[in-house]
Amino acid sequence: MTIKEWSNCPNCKLPAIYSEFKRLLEADPTCPMCETNVPAISITMCSDPEAEFKALTALMKESGPNEEEGANDDEEGDDLE
């Protein structure tokens, strides 16, 4: 994905390549992430993609390895032997 083609779902904010997301929605107007009806015409290029990228990066850092460790603890308790 490049900054030049940054877009997202107007409902769930799923980051997407503008041309590919628009093509996908023209075939089936359903967001693959939130399953909301999204008309292809409603997809636009982001006005400030660098700011959106920085916000997404910060969000990913916040939810880093700590959540993964918790997920592994749950999996270990699910084993039925």
In short:
The chain is mainly alpha-helical. It has 3 helices and 2 strands, in the order E-E-H-H-H.
Which labels suit this protein?
single chain, 81 residues, mainly alpha, Herpes Virus-1, 3 helices, 46% helix, 7% strand
What does this structure look like?
The structure is a single chain. The chain has 81 residues and is mainly alpha-helical. The protein has a domain at 1-54: Herpes Virus-1, CATH 3.30.40. The protein has three helices and two strands; from the N terminus they run ββααα. A two-stranded antiparallel sheet has the order 1-2. A hairpin with a 6-residue loop joins β1 (6-8) and β2 (15-17). It is globular. It starts with 5 loop residues before the first strand and ends with a helix.
Measured on Cα atoms, how large is the radius of gyration? 17 Å
- Uncertain residue segments: none
Approximate shape: globular
CATH class of the domain at 1-54: Alpha Beta
SS-based class: mainly alpha
The major beta sheet can be summarized as: 2 strands, antiparallel
- How many angstroms separate the termini? 44 Å
